[in-house]
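Hi X.,

You mentioned you wanted examples for the new student's onboarding notes, showing what a folding record looks like when two proteins sit in one file. Here is a clean example. The first protein comes first, with its sequence line followed by its structure tokens.
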Amino acid sequence: MGKHGTANVGDFLCGFFVGEMVGSALSAFQIVHQREPTADEHLEIIELVESHSNEIKEFFAKFN
């Protein structure tokens, strides 16, 4: 695979994980509040997940 092929595994896993986290948080919001989040609430959820991006990247870097 080479250098780029293995680096992509960790990057893919990180991106997939972040996407799943945001999706799960949005679903949980809808269930708890019985409504769609506003645009501001949606951004707040994304920012919350992104605030942990360094830890997430470090974790998935183990798979490179």
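Then the second protein repeats the pattern, sequence line and then tokens:
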Amino acid sequence: MRKLISSPVACSPTTGKAQTSYLLRFAILGTLLLFLPGCVYFRLLDVKSQLKEVERYFAVERNAAGMEIGFLDPTLRDDDLERLGVVPLRSETTEDGEVWEVEMRKRLPAEKEPEPEHHVWTELRFEEGLLVSVLIPDQYLACFPPDLILATMKALGDSRVLKLKKSVAAQTEQSFDEVLEAATYEQLLETFGAPYKIEKDEDEMALVYSYEKGEPEDLAEERRSDRTYEIRYILDPAGDRLLAAGTKSISIRYPSP
């Protein structure tokens, strides 16, 4: 069992300028197509709006566990995330509030050996029911350097969020002016292990990873989910450079050198 990190985040906006990333991947992006009540939808819009001003609304602290992103003006509540389908694998009550460990369990075809060491996880910290920080574990930082992380967050801030028939989808297809250092095929495999499948053509290669939610053993049957989530990393044919990344509802394209 991982030791839950519950230390406070240093609220220093200047340190967050180029070091922020998986904010929505664990808590929001994988579940954006779930049906939401209007109050949750508008709080998601608040978060997206804050992404346009990363330095103003987020603080970053590096520690032994990785990078902790603090919300300086938190709006998302623990019950919002529950409505989004986020279920903590483990939780711990602290003096300040609560810490959740959230895990996405990697799926592979039946003929392949499981890779539990490559389950994707994060920690969410709450105070008075509000999400105040997200931990990005250290093992993911080598694959996504700060400039790429910052560009991704800003692109999400510039994306469009649509509400259609009570469903929410974010549509982002951003290109960035600057050339960014991006992950390679080898780095992605080292960080996330073997993909569920690889798709190739003469122009690009796609590493497709599949996940399901990690759920506590005592979770009631009616709250369990059999839904799976897919993340695609698009690289050049040689696997030397990440060109794009996305889920079913989000895609972000990075510039070629």
